[in-house]
Amino acid sequence: MSAYEWYLEKGKAQAETIIANWRTLLKEKQKAGFTGLRGAGEMEVFFANSKSEELLRYEAALGRKFDFNLCALCLYDTEWIDETQVTQLNKYHGHRIFIDIALKTT
Question: 42: Cβ–Cβ under 8 A, 6 or more apart, which residues?
């Protein structure tokens, strides 16, 4: 599934809908015998579609730890993100990995 299909339903990025999609997928996989999910998401779709505020609401809603059995890796391209957004995202994630990061300021 593309990032656009997963995160932007009908052009809208709503934290509650995305989290509900994760829960639904987890339930489907548990019925198939899996105990949890591991996923990776390319977050560029939010920036490319002028949805950075929605992205930050989504990340804040998720918090530092899921309340369900999901491990996720959120991928950010530094060309799309500014220092303020990095600071906000740092508050929401438990772990971070930065590779060759040079933040731009606005």
Answer: 3, 75
HEC profile of 17-64: HHHHHHHHHHHHHHHCCCCCEEEEEECHHHHHCCCHHHHHHHHHHHCC
Residue with tokens 């052009």: 11
pLDDT of residue 85: 86
Supply the pTM of this predicted model.
Answer: 0.79
Quote the CA–CA distance of 70 and 76 in Å, as a whole number: 19
Domain spans, the chain: 3-92
